[in-house]
Specification:
This protein is an alpha+beta fold and about 325 residues long. The protein has 7 helices and 8 strands, in the order αβββααββαβββααα. Strands 1, 2, 3, 4, 5, 6, 7 and 8 form an 8-stranded antiparallel sheet that branches. A hairpin with a 5-residue loop joins strand 2 and strand 3.
């Protein structure tokens, strides 16, 4: 028993260190029409709720989440680039390289464009749906869940709690533990037109998701997270640059390629509209700042993608 407790403590320490590293972006998106993914449904007012349980790493994998970066923006051609950023797996990215050059130019218009095209941070974990009011058929099922930094930071606060000035030290909790973890009460509100997750909370009292047999059954249904960031899901530098150039109008898109016309509703990261400054003509002309609309929440931007697509269709 003491050996099991010590092992659990070592796992929690390793998780704490990993999550602290992941909470600060350093440097793959999977389509969410993939039925492995769960997404909470919101009502007409933009509000939603559910109770979920984050689950541990699949056997043979190190951590209960993967960290990914993506690019999502609309170029001056009205074509979209929605793609995995190769920096997620330690490779160079042509979009990030171009953004660095723009930022270093010192021009405000260049900086705005670089900001509009910057990579977005998200996380993916396995979850058990405890209560999905809109779709009770999901209750008791294991899904992949893609979420942003706001929710991740709430999980980090459980793993690495702040010392309470009155009561002293707070016992850390591994929210990904199926036996000694806690449920997550997801509460979504609409703030400034975008989903907000600030009212979401973790329970404070650890509970098991079920008995030993049920836990074993659920853990047997976990999806591989390492597969999500397998290099095969990322374009090569040359292929991504070719797509980047097409979106910017520097080369022509292939005839009939609809992937440039509308965004894939794939990420919970914001997707700005990035307009490249017009090239200089023989007579010097001042650059105009690129039009860029960014979602206010990094945790959910499906609505933002849909609105941008509608605007593009109506233009």
């Amino acid at each position: 028993m003491e050996k099991k407790k010590q092992s659990r403590s070592e796992q929690l320490n390793a998780l704490r260190q990993k999550m602290q590293e992941s909470s600060s972006p350093k440097s793959n998106t999977q389509k969410q029409d993939d039925d492995r993914y769960w997404k909470p449904e919101r009502d007409v007012s933009g509000q939603g709720s559910a109770i979920i349980r984050f689950l541990p790493a699949k056997a043979g994998e190190a951590y209960p989440y993967v960290q990914i970066h993506t690019h999502g923006f609309q170029g001056p051609t009205n074509k979209w680039l929605i793609d995995n950023c190769p920096t997620s797996i330690g490779e160079n990215c042509p979009v990030c390289k171009a953004n660095t050059m723009l930022w270093n130019s010192g021009q405000e218009s260049d900086k705005k464009l670089a900001s509009a095209r910057k990579r977005k941070l998200n996380y993916i974990s396995n979850i058990l749906v405890i209560n999905d009011p809109k779709h009770p058929e999901n209750n008791g099922k294991v899904f992949l869940y893609k979420y942003g930094k706001r929710i991740f930071d709430k999980a980090l606060e459980m793993v690495n709690p702040q010392v309470d000035e009155i009561s002293g030290a707070v016992e850390p909790i591994d929210p990904f533990d199926a036996e000694f973890g806690v449920n997550f009460k997801l509460r979504i509100t609409k703030v400034d037109g975008f989903p907000n997750y600030d009212r979401s909370t973790f329970d404070t009292t650890p509970t098991a998701i079920g008995d030993e047999d049920y836990i074993a059954e659920i853990l047997g249904q976990l999806h591989s997270l390492e597969e999500i960031i397998d290099p095969s899901h990322f374009k090569s530098f040359a292929d991504l640059k070719r797509r980047f150039d097409m979106v910017n109008g520097e080369t022509s898109a292939d005839e009939g390629d609809e992937s440039f016309d509308k965004p894939e509703l794939a990420e919970e990261a914001s997707a700005p509209v990035a307009k490249k400054p017009a090239p200089k003509k023989p007579a010097p002309a001042a650059k105009t700042a690129p039009r860029a609309a960014a979602a206010s929440s990094s945790d959910d931007s499906d609505d933002f993608f849909v609105n941008l697509a509608k605007q593009s269709d109506e233009a």
